[in-house]
Structures are given as structure tokens and as C-alpha cells.
Write a structure and sequence with these properties.
elongated, about 375 residues, mainly alpha
Length: about 375
């Protein structure tokens, strides 16, 4: 395959500006952006078996229905297995947030006490007392004021998230029809480049989400192995939740680590070594991600400079918060492909000449009997 033409600064300014505008718009319609993102992930998860069924002779409608039914069946079986294998909680569901918050406060108190014993000048500054007082006040305020709002917000998101499977089904069944609809609106001179554009956009998104899914599986196995080694219950579930939270760069990894530390503190209240071991497991997993796993998966999916990636992560977080952190890299990859292709179309003198010549022929043909 020929090497892709390098884009200039004007094209890259347009790519970055388009990415920022898309992030802002998606933040405005977050109720649709998040189900759309989950639907794209499901689409690329199910695309390989869907294409295999097509090669076996099934129609697109039948193949989409079979793949969707198989996915629902697998989810139901996974839920049943999780209900059987995961032990029932020892406390009531409505008491669990308070239990884990108290465990986190206790862990911080014990850790600060150990630090003060190592550094006596911190004890004189009464660091532990002030931090403990602030943590206790914040935990009480969170339970009394914010927990109900969080639960109501989460329940309000459930109907919107149920759109994801339906969107994924129609992406599978009607994706080719949508591509044909777009291609019919393109002038003949730019038809080949437009087909290349659609193919590259699809391949860029496919490489990114396949890489993200592979990274999720690897992170789940690594974290589950480490959490099992230190003796935490349900290590596979905790590892999977932490790996999914890691879809949000940086913030998700911290949230997953915090979740596991709270569980470790609640299950072993008299042994901080388990919580410390969980932190070590997450640090090791993060280092493996940065230096081994991510270059093997996501690093091969988006061909862009690391400096651009880091800067755009900060821009995405500033423009759209957590949503921007999740969407900025795939949006930047797609905008990069579109911008580079449009740059080629605009600057290719031969394509422009072909387009002008085709227009002049159509004008002559339409006016030949008017003279």
C-alpha cells in the first residue's frame, strides 16, 4: 500500500478544531453520545462473527439477528454465573455505601497514623487530626446529600443506555446501505477518494475499539491475577470493573484503584497490608499498560505523535469532562483521516481538473438542444 501523504499545518489546525467542536457538541447531547459510543463498541465486538455468518450465506438481516441473540444469551449466562459464583454481601444493599466510605476513612486514618509515627514533625502539625475531621465531615455530607442524587442520576441513565444494543443491531444490518447513501452524493471525480475515506474511517475506528477491547481483556486478567494473589474476594469481577473504568484515561485508573482499596479496607479492616498490596498491584498493572500492553494494542490503532495525544487528552477533559477523555482519541483519529483526505482532494490539481471538466461536459449536454 502506498504511504499516506503527510498533512500540513493548516490541515492539522482544521483537524484539531473539528475535534474540539465535535467534543463540545457531544457534551451538549451526552444522553445520545454515551449510548452511541457503547453501540459502536458493541458493533465492532460483533462485526467479526457477523461477517463470518455473511460468508456462510446468511442474509444481513438474519446474520444481525443471530449475532444479537447470541450476544444476549451470553450476557444472560454471564449474569447467572456471576450470581452463582459471587458470594452474597454480608450487609444490606442500602448500608453498603456507608460501609465502604467508613472503611476508606479508617484506611486513611491508619495510613496517616503510620506516616506520623515515621515523621514526628507531622504529628506536631496535627496533620492526621485535620485530615480525619475533613474526611468524616465529607463522608457524612456525601451520604446525607449526594448519594441519593447519584442513585437517581444513575437510574435516569438506564433507559438511554438501553439504546446501545438497538443502535448496534442497525449498525450491523444497515451499515453498508448508509455507506452507499453517502457515496451517491459524491461527484464522480472524487468517488475513488471518497471510498478510500470511508474505508479508512471504518478501519481507524475498528483498530481503535478492537485495541481497546483487547486491552480490557488483558487488564482484567492481570488485575484479577494480582487481586487473587493478595486474597481479595471476587477478583475477576473487581478486575473487570477496574479495566472498564480504565477506558477513561488517567481518571478511570484512579477510580478503579480507589474502588479496590475501599473493598480491601472493608473486607480486612484490621489489615492494611491488603489495601497496600492492592495499590502495588494497580501500579504494576499501570506500568505494564504504559510500556507493554498499550503499545501492542491502542498504540498500533492510532498513528499519531504522542505529544498530540497527550495534549488532546487535556483538551478533551477541559471541553467535555469525563466524556471528552473517553471520546477524544477516537474522534481525533476519525477527524485525522477525514482531514487528511479532504486536504488531498483540495490540493490535488488533477482531481480538481477532472471535476471541472465533468461539470463542463454536463453543462454542454444539458444545453445542447437550446442553441
Amino acid at each position: 500500500m502506498a504511504e499516506r501523504q503527510q498533512s500540513g499545518p493548516i490541515v492539522w489546525c482544521g483537524i484539531i478544531a473539528a475535534t474540539c467542536v465535535l467534543l463540545y457538541l457531544m457534551q451538549r447531547v451526552l444522553w445520545l453520545s454515551l449510548p452511541f459510543l457503547l453501540a459502536i463498541i458493541l458493533y465492532y465486538m460483533l462485526l467479526s462473527p457477523f461477517q463470518r455468518l455473511l460468508r456462510m450465506g446468511f442474509s444481513r438481516n438474519t446474520a444481525a439477528m443471530l449475532v444479537g441473540a447470541a450476544f444476549v444469551l451470553v450476557m444472560l449466562l454471564a449474569s447467572l454465573l456471576a450470581a452463582v459464583w459471587i458470594p452474597a454481601p454480608t450487609t444490606e444493599w442500602h448500608d453498603m455505601p456507608g460501609r465502604y466510605l467508613d472503611a476508606g476513612v479508617r484506611f486513611m486514618r491508619n495510613m496517616l497514623g503510620a506516616v506520623e509515627r515515621q515523621f514526628p514533625f507531622l504529628r506536631q502539625a496535627r496533620l492526621g487530626d485535620s485530615v480525619n475531621l475533613n474526611l468524616a465531615e465529607y463522608s457524612r455530607e456525601f451520604l446525607q446529600r449526594h448519594l441519593g442524587d447519584v442513585l437517581v442520576t444513575a437510574a435516569a441513565w438506564v433507559p438511554s443506555l438501553l439504546l446501545a444494543p438497538f443502535l448496534a443491531f442497525f449498525f450491523l444490518r444497515d451499515g453498508r446501505r448508509f455507506k452507499r447513501f453517502l457515496a451517491r452524493a459524491v461527484p464522480n471525480a472524487f468517488f475513488e477518494k471518497t471510498l478510500f475515506l470511508l474505508h479508512e474511517v471504518d478501519q481507524t475506528a475498528r483498530r481503535y475499539f478492537h485495541g481497546m477491547l483487547k486491552l480490557t481483556v488483558i487488564d482484567t486478567v492481570v488485575l484479577a491475577t494480582g487481586l487473587w494473589a493478595i486474597g481479595l474476594p471476587s477478583p475477576l469481577l473487581l478486575g473487570f470493573i477496574a479495566a472498564v473504568l480504565a477506558w477513561v484515561p488517567y481518571v478511570g485508573s484512579i477510580a478503579g484503584c480507589l474502588l479496590v482499596v475501599l473493598v480491601a479496607s472493608a473486607d480486612t479492616p484490621d489489615n492494611n497490608a491488603v489495601a497496600y498490596s492492592a495499590i502495588v498491584v494497580f501500579i504494576i498493572a499501570r506500568l505494564l499498560d504504559d510500556f507493554i500492553f498499550m503499545p501492542m494494542t491502542l498504540g498500533r490503532s492510532l498513528r499519531m505523535h504522542p505529544l498530540v495525544t497527550v495534549v488532546m487528552l487535556f483538551v478533551g477533559g477541559a471541553l467535555a469532562g469525563v466524556t471528552g477523555l473517553m471520546l477524544v482519541l477516537p474522534l481525533l483519529g476519525v477527524a485525522m483521516v477525514v482531514g487528511e483526505t479532504i486536504g488531498v482532494l483540495v490540493t490535488d490539481a488533477r482531481l480538481q481538473a477532472r471535476h471541472r471538466y465533468a461539470r463542463s461536459l454536463r453543462v454542454k449536454q444539458a444545453s445542447v438542444d437550446l442553441k
